[in-house]
Amino acid sequence: MCVTRPGQKPAARQATSGRRGHLLSVEIVTAQTPDREVAELYEAHALSLIRLAYVMLGDRPAAEDVVQEAFLRLYQRWGTLRDTASAPGYLRVSVLNGCRMVLRSSARRDDRTARIASELPWESAEATALVSEKYRQLLSGIRALPPRQREALVLRYYLDLSEEETAQSMGVRRGTVKSATSRALAALGQRMQEYS
Amino acid sequence: MNVSADQVRAATRVAAAVITQDTVPPLRLGESPGGRRPGPGRRTRPAWVTPLAAAAAIVIIAGGGAAVSSVLAKSGTSRTGASGAPSRGGSTSGASAGSHAGVPPYYVAVANSSLTVVRATWTGATRARITTRTPVVGVAGAADGRTFVLDEQRSIVGGSVTWVGQPAFYLLRLTRSGAEESLTRLAVPAIPDGTVVSGLALSPDGSKLAVDVDSANWPQARLMKIMTYTLATGASRSWTTSGLTSADASSGFTGSGVDGAQSISWTADSRTLAFSVQAMSYTGVRLLDTAAGGSDLMADSRLVFEQSFKDLGRSLKNAAPPYYFVSCSTDAMISTDGSAIVCGYSTSAGKTTTMGFAQYSTVTGKMNHVFGLVHFRGHAPTGISLYWVNSTGTIAIGTSEKTGRGRIGVMNGDRFTPLPGVTGFEAIAW
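^ inputs. structure came back:
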C-alpha cells in the first residue's frame, strides 16, 4: 500500500480501497492462528527441510518455495492437528509431497527444457566451490533418476530412514523401496562409468 | 562401476551443506499476490516478496487537528481494558500467550528511504508497506501494538549528517490484522531552527507524543529540548536546557539520533518521561514529570542514576575483570509501571564476554538484576539495542550480540527467542 501525498494520482486510492473487504476477512483467520508456534518450528526445522528439498530437487529457490508452502499449509491447518508434536513429521511429509509435485511438473516440460534443467543443479558458484566434480556428477545422476527412485535414495541414504520408514513415507510397499533403490544405484553406476 | 550407499550418502550431504543456517530466508506466512495461496508445484518465490497487504489498504492523509481528532476517536473505540488504555500485545496473535505475554503483535520498520513496512512480530510476515517521498527516519509505538508515529525528515550528508527542514509526523493506525487503517499528519509545532529530532516516544495510550530535540550542528549550538504534544487537543509543552559546555553538547546530550533507539520513553499514565543523557564525562537516565510545572529540562527532572565515564574508564583499564559496561546513553527505557529502567549491559571476564540487559530501580537508582544474557568468546560490541520492554521491565525486545552478529529477539529471563526477518532496518519500533 502506498501513502498518497498531495499531488499523487487519486486512482491509487480507489484501487486499494476496493480490496479492503478482503483484508478484513483475512484478519479473522490470522487472529486465531499460531504465529509464534509456527515461527518456532520454522526456526528449528527450516534448514533441514530446505536441505532435504534441495537434495530432492537440486534447485534452491524451488526448495525454499516447497518448504515455505509446507509451513503455510501447517499454519492454515494448525487447528486440525491432533498433536502439535506431530508437526515436524507433518512438515517432512508435506515437503516431500511438494517435491513430488515439482518433479511431476518439470517432467511435463518438453525434452529440451528438462535436459537443460537436469544440467543446472549443483552448478551455482557456491556449490561448485564446495562440491567436488565427482560428487557433482553423482548428484546430477541422482537428479536424472525417475522421481520415485530419486526419492527412495534420498530417504534411505540422505535421511538414513529404514526401508520400512521409507516405504511408509513414500506410501509404497517395502519391496518397492528395495527395487527402487537397487535400480537407482545401478543406474548411477552406469552413469558414473560413462563419465569416467 | 558400482555406486555405494555411502557414496550417495556423502554426495547428498555435501550438497545439502551448501545451505547454511544464515542463508535460510525468513518465514513469510500469508503473503501471496492478491491473497492467492500458492499451489503445490507452483513457483512462488515472487510471492514471498509481494505481501498480501501491499495491494489492499486505504490511506488517509489529512492535515490539521480535525483529522487527528477523527482518527483518535476511531482508535479509542477499539481499545480494551477497564482503564481504557490498551494492553501490550492485544489479541491478534499467539504472541499474547505463554511466557512472552505482552509482546506486541506488530512492528514498524524503515526498510529504506522510501519504504516503511509493518510486520508480524513472530513470523516476520509483512502486513503493510508504506511508501513515502520523504525519508522516514524515526518510528515510535503505543502500547496497543497498532498505533505508531512516523517521523519524516529530509536530510543532506555533508561533513557530518545534518537534518534539514522541519520534520513531519504521521499517526499510523493498523487494523487488527496489521494492515494500514489510516495515516494522518499530526500538527506538531515546529522545532527550533538549528535543531534536529533525536528521539521520539509515543505514550502507551497513544495520547501524547514526546520529541527529543538536539542541536543540529554539534558542538556549536547548545539548545537541548524535549517537547510533548497532546494528539487530541494539539496542546504542547517544552522543556529546554542551556549553558551546556560545547564538550557536553558534542556528544548529543539527549538521545542519539532517530534511529529507533529508545532514548526517551513514557510510563503508562502518560505523565512521566524517562530520557537518557550523555555528556563527555558521564551518562545517566533522568525522569521528567510532564504534569508538573517548570520548563527547565535539568532542574525540573530527577536523576535516577548516572555513571561516570572517568570511573568506567578506570575500571575498564585497570580493574581486574569482571567489569561491566551499561549502555544507557542511547538505549534506556522505562517500564510502563514506572518502577524500572532497562539498559543494555555487558561484562567481560578473561576472553569471555557476557551481554544482556540491566534493570535499575527508579526509586533507589540501584541495579536490580540483569537478564537476557548471552556468553561468548571475544570482545563485546559497545552498543546494545533495546526496542521495547514490558510493563514491569522484565521482558525486552532487543539485540542479542554474539561475536559481532546481533540478532533481534525477545529476552525473557535467560531465554532469547530470535524473531525472524528483523534485519537490515534503519529504524524500528514495537
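Chain A touches chain B through 80 residues (CB under 8 Å). Confidence is low (pLDDT under 50) at residues 1-32, 109-130 of chain A.
thumbs up if we can close this ticket
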